[in-house]
């Protein structure tokens, strides 16, 4: 099994990138192949219907679709901007949705968030679910929110709270089972 991991943040020291690095370590320990993407790889202009009609899909959107389709599932760690989805991520979702057939259809997705707030970016994850599910993605029900993310990581990149580390591991294991079950059922 192979999973594409993407932090929907451009910041070099993003806590969502730290969360994905830890998730990748835990997944690799379970024998899962990882494609760790950098959001900057999928640079696209602001969505514009006339531009889409004239030039078609931008290279960044095509690259994302190819990498997403080469994986069995997608894990997105997204920051919360003003209680919602980051504009950069929504813009990528919108561009990808312009391709036919719909690239998001039946894509298996786990949403995660790391935030310095006590809510852990959970409000943004709920807003992120909406366009993904509207486009036909199958979003895993158990999203992972990391609160107080600026103090949650030890120097070695692991969580300082062992029970939180176990909760992340359990969440990832659940997603792996979810992906395998959907694949077995033809989704």
Commentary on this structure:
- By secondary structure, the chain is α/β, with parallel strands linked by helices.
- It has helices at residues 15-29, 49-55, 59-69, 87-96, 122-134, 162-184; strands spanning 2-7, 33-38, 73-77, 108-114, 138-139, 144-146.
- Helix 5 (122-134) links the parallel strand 4 (108-114) and strand 5.
- The longest helix has 23 residues, at 162-184.
- The protein is globular and about 50 Å long.
Quick structural summary:
This protein is an alpha/beta fold.
Specify the biggest β-sheet: 6 strands, parallel
The structure class reads: alpha/beta
- Tell me the CATH architecture: 3-Layer(aba) Sandwich
CATH superfamily: Flavodoxin domain
- Number of β-strand runs: 6
Order of helices and strands: EHEHHEHEHEEH
Please, how many domains? 1
